Amino acid sequence: MRRIFAVFFISLSFILSCVNVSFSANITIVHWQHHFEPRAKVVESLIKEFTQENPGIEVKFESIPYDTFFDKLVTSLSAGTGPDVFQIPVNILYQFVNQNLVLPIPSDLMPLSEIRNTFIPWTIRMSYINGKYWGFPTDVQPFMLFVNNKLLEDAGLNPAKAPKTWKELEEMARKTTKFTGDKMVQAGLNVFGNAYHYYWTFVYQNVTKSVVDPKTLKVGYNSPEGYEAWQFLADLILKYHVDDPTFLTNQDKFALGKAALDIHEAVYKGNLDMIAPNIKYNVYIPPTKTGKPSTVGTNWVYVVSSKTKNPNVAFKWASYLTSEKAEKEWVIKTGSMPSRKTLLDDVSLQKDSNMIAIFKAIKFVRPLEDLDWDPAWEIREECFQNIVLKNIDVKKAVDLSAQKEEALYSKKFQK
Amino acid sequence: MRLKYNTKLILWAYIFLFPSLVSLGIVILYPILDAFYISFFRWNLLSFEKSFIGLKNYEGLFQDSIFKKALINTLYFSVISVPVTLFIALIIALMLNSLSTGIKNTLRTIYFIPVITSIVAVSFVWRWMFEPSYGPINHILGFLGIHGIGWLSDTKWALPAIMIVNIWRNIGFYMVIFLASLQMIPKEFLEAALIDGATSYKRFIYVVLPLLNPTVVFCLAISIIDALQIFTQVYVMTSGSGGIVPGGPLYSTTTIALYIYKIAFRDLEMGYATSVAFVLFLLIFIFTLIQIKFTERPFEY
Fold first, then answer.
1. Surface of B (113-142) touching A: CB under 8 A
2. pLDDT tens-digit profile of A345-399?
3. How far is A396 from chain B (nearest CA, A)?
4. Interchain pair A247, B250: CB under 8 A
5. pTM, full prediction
6. Comparing C-alpha atoms, which of A119, A83, A90 is closest to residue A317?
7. For A114-125, what is each residue's pLDDT tens digit?
8. Domains with residue ranges and CATH for chain B
9. How many CA within 13 A on the CB side of residue A334?
10. Fold assignment, A27-140+299-359
11. What contacts A67, CB < 8 A, 6 or more positions away?
12. Which ipTM value was assigned to this complex?
């Protein structure tokens, strides 16, 4: 009898050790996203926590500079050697879905109803394709107005009083713009830093119909409301000279303390705290023409490659990145906004007036409707430059841009 | 069967050449032929499917205003930067050739430093130097009474700014080649010309320059090929942190190489990008043939 027990226990321990080996065998997940210093640090700390909670799983993280991110991603996916989990703008997700490059979120991990109940509707709007959700929303960015308190006080303005209308913004920008002779020494607005922050904001605030209609592939900014938004931006530069292309070209004037106001994604807060800790600033929802609060917002999605060898583990990691615990870290450490509804009312995350303003702004976001990323942006950038650098009539430049953007979309959707 | 001695030699030569011919075939010839094949297809880089469209990609080039702009920019860049670079390099080489060895070696090293410096780092530094409001270049020009050049923010000045960087960077390289060539010219020829009463100008025109002809042809060929493919300086100097389109403002610095990159990796149209690449290939081929035809002159004394 003893012998039988001995053989039984030896066999059992052998089987268990084999099972243990198979569980502890390392699974490696490769994760790519574009580099943004504060976000990269959060991913690194989340990897530590995730791998501690899930022994046997290793996450290899590459934070790739934005300028080369898409080059590297598309070439590697095309060659079938891409990462398991990666981040893309939700606006181009349909292109990846159409080419079978990504997997849908499995319903056993998160059913459709749970996804709808969990995430803010505008962050998942474009990731619902063919009856499935294909990505976890992240990098939620309402566009906000950043105000340099000192420069406003120097101009005799109250930085605690937010401009509500375009008219108030224009007046504030004019009062804070400084020249020595004919040379600009301080910009009112940092328009040339990243002009898209301005034309996206003003256009999406002002155009009531679709800015891009996914059914007709037509754009809506070549309309009286669209022309008005572009004209307002043109006037800021050409009529009121609140910024100049030759003043600190390609520099972040706001972070350098050389621009009083700037419109930026909310995550700029995290960057600003890191690169310009001495600048005291307030954050507000960008002013609109009528004063009714509205801003544009963008978000990216974490997706799982269809070529991954470990889809379950990859989805586990992708969902962990957007878990409640992880999203709190995103908010606290980067200034990125949460995509989960429950966190919108979490006052522990709204530690100062700037965070309160950003959280409040999420409720007034109109998501970016573009059906492409860099190519669509380039067309509108050309429109902006045609207006401010070549003095082309606003209507003419906007019409040309609309025509090019519609041609781009019709080409993209060509079968 | 006994092979002739010469046949044997040739056979051995090919045996030794075989490994490099195979590797060249795989890494150069095959990609070129494959790219030419792809240029007849519509192929989105994200897709694994290609659809044959014949010559449509090439036809599209005629209606593409950005391609035309890129072509003009590339030719303008090459036509200005190549002769200026070679002219300055030759002048410096002539000056250094007349100096004592110690000073010559020191100056040669100094002029060569930009060539071995990282082009990306160099472009970033120049971008800062060209900054219109606080950059040192406009500051210096201000002392000369020249104000308000927008450099990289101005559609008229952006490409000349990149030309300046390219000329500055390449002078050292061509200067070294010219200097080596000048040192090869037999002193007897120059002494004979001197005895015949030739002035230094005539010695240069009738003795030095003809003997430098093969070097000039070589430098011209590689500098034109280099200029027609200009990419890195343009990309680094004209792109911003996600907010500035490379090749701007308003495509004023978009070159063909940059346009190929943009179509392939931003617009993801690989078929169209390869058709533009073949136009660039043809352009380089034609330019090289023309200049060899017009500049190469066999010269013997």
1. 127, 130-134
2. 888 889 889 999 999 999 999 999 999 988 999 999 999 999 999 999 999 999 9
3. 16
4. no
5. 0.87
6. A83
7. 999 999 999 999
8. 63-295 (1.10.3720.10)
9. 25
10. D-Maltodextrin-Binding Protein; domain 2 (3.40.190)
11. B239, B242
12. 0.84
